[in-house]
Amino acid sequence: MRTFELTYPHSMVLNELPETVTAIGFFDGIHKGHQKVIQTAVREAKERGMESAVITFHPHPSVVLKKDVQHVKYLTPIREKQEILQKLEVDRLYIIQFNQELASLTPQVFVDHFLKGLHIKHMVAGFDFSYGHKGKGNMQTIQEHAAGAFTVTQVDKVVIDGEKVSSTKIRNLLEAGDMDEAARLLGRPLSVTGFVVKGEQRGRTIGYPTANIAVSDETLLPKVGVYAVKVLYKNEVYEGMASLGFKPTFTDQLVEPVLEVNIFDYNNDLYEEELRVQWYTFIREEKKFSGVEELVSEIAEDEKKVRKYFNS
């Protein structure tokens, strides 16, 4: 998959671009609803003998349009979004920078520049896709703005158990620690990637060494607590348990939660290595213990529960 980062106005030359079938949307999470849009475009592209493409945006529009929003955490930061799209067999990815200039474009100028101008011959989008200044362009106006330059497929909402699959719904599930339901809507476990950094190495002294993982501040994490996780490292998959929290037994100074993972049956040094953590199920809330002995006893119970979860 080839990736192109574009700003308005872009400098792509129309007659140097392949004709594509393109899915368009923000696609945070690339959940089952998004997958239906993207897979529709990939399938249509293969049937037409064209390349498939995805147009997405960065940063989230709310960072630009809402004065009170300075920063957004994503279900799928850009790198992970790229990896998932690659697995979905997308040929080309266009990442359009969302800024005030882009937000000010009329719907017609947006279509002319970013759809007709990128040699799109068929566009696929969800029923609620909007474009142009104040979102005045939508799936009811797109044919008019296309003016015959490309055709359009509208994908209806994906409903599971009577409820629309959405990024907002998944965010709410993560806030509640409901990883099982979040995974059902995503079509995969939530995963985050980060590098192992030096911690206090307290875990080694109590028999539970942990990898302290620093994740990007753009990554959305679930609620604080203890979880059953799998860790992907160098094409190997390991089971383990993760603690996401403020370590109240030892300190009251932390302002951001720390992610520590105890990888079962693994003892090698992982310092400065990159790990991917897949979140499977919530085990318990974070607690403040009276001391190390009580903490170790609880961790042993956590380990039993996590091993039982994976064995079942």
TrEMBL record:
Pathway: Cofactor biosynthesis; FAD biosynthesis; FAD from FMN: step 1/1; Cofactor biosynthesis; FMN biosynthesis; FMN from riboflavin (ATP route): step 1/1. The keyword ATP-binding applies. Pfam families: FAD_syn, Flavokinase. It catalyses: riboflavin + ATP = FMN + ADP + H(+); FMN + ATP + H(+) = FAD + diphosphate. Its EC number is 2.7.1.26, 2.7.7.2. This is Riboflavin biosynthesis protein. Coiled coil: none annotated. It comes from the Bacteria. Catalyzes the phosphorylation of riboflavin to FMN followed by the adenylation of FMN to FAD. The gene is ribF. It is an enzyme of class 2 (transferase). Residues 185-311 form the Riboflavin kinase domain. It comes from Oceanobacillus picturae.
